[in-house]
Amino acid sequence: EAQVTQNPRYLITVTGKKLTVTCSQNMNHEYMSWYRQDPGLGLRQIYYSMNVEVTDKGDVPEGYKVSRKEKRNFPLILESPSPNQTSLYFCASSFQGSGYGYTFGSGTRLTVV
Amino acid sequence: QQPVQSPQAVILREGEDAVINCSSSKALYSVHWYRQKHGEAPVFLMILLKGGEQKGHEKISASFNEKKQQSSLYLTASQLSYSGTYFCGTARDDKIIFGKGTRLHILP
User: Fold this and answer.
1) What pLDDT does residue A77 have?
2) Integer Cα distance of A3 and A103 in angstroms
3) CB-CB: which of A50, A102, A107 is closest to B44?
4) What digits encode the pLDDT tens for the residues A17-28?
5) With an 8 Å Cβ cutoff, is B97 touching chain A?
6) B-chain residues near A105 (CB < 8 A)
7) Which residue on chain A is closest to B2 by alpha carbon?
8) Mapping DSSP to helix (H, G, I), strand (E, B) and coil, where does residue A83 land?
9) Between chains, do A102 and B42 touch, taking CB under 8 Å as contact?
10) What is the pLDDT of residue B67?
11) Cβ contact, residue pair B34, A102, below 8 Å
């Protein structure tokens, strides 16, 4: 089944403890992206990647890192999480950029205390 | 830069029609539409590319006026399954920026 898989689905962590949210797609998509969703703000783009080793900032990149070493994987790294990063995170992929529809993962609900 | 969606929320009875609008202050390459049900991931509905085309998906269709930088989503004869939050995403330079969403609630 074609899908984007995120892990974990739920995560509670403490301020400052590094964490990684994994994202993997099995559709051979070139384009991958991370979004956070907060009430009243909609989906805001954190980072995106056009292809392996090619990444760029979205609208809210502060406090996040990404890497794209393989085409299928696009992990989101929070080096020192803070409470304002408590949010619902979605990974998405598309065949090739913004001219194609996105497939979203199931989401990761992160709570930083 | 975030596109503006209107209305913010709509309540309809089953069988009624709805229109959701999306406007941007910047020139667009394409417009995406997604539906998100509570507790689930957004699901792609359709994409409209430059050219003012209108696309359809079952009883859901959309138009894109690139000169006005606007898109509209039309839901005809709404069904209970249409309930959810609808997001438009406007695309430039391979970045998609989503609006804040329109909540649609269908009553039986």
Assistant:
1) 98
2) 7
3) A102
4) 999 999 999 999
5) yes
6) 41
7) A44
8) helix
9) yes
10) 84
11) yes
Residues B60-92: tens digit of each pLDDT: 899 888 888 899 999 999 999 999 999 999 987
Is A89 buried (19+), middle (13-18) or exposed (0-12) by CB count in 10 A?
buried
- Report the Cα–Cα distance between both ends of chain A, in Å, rounded: 36
Structure letter (DSSP) for residue B62: E
Nearest CA in chain B to A96: B94
Residue A39, preceding bond cis, omega within 30 degrees?
no
Say if B98 is an interface residue toward chain A (CB within 8 Å).
yes
The yes-or-no verdict on residue A101 having pLDDT over 70 is yes
How many residues does the structure list for chain B?
108
Please, what is the average pLDDT of chain B? 89
* Side chain identity at residue A42, one-letter code: G
CA distances from B11 to A37, B46, B79 (A): 23, 23, 12
A42 reaches B (C-beta below 8 A): yes
A40 — pLDDT class (breaks 50, 70, 90): confident
Answer for the pair B99, B52: CB distance below 8 angstroms, yes or no.
no
HSE on the CB side for B79, CA within 13 Å? 4
Quick one: tokens of A17? 């403890």
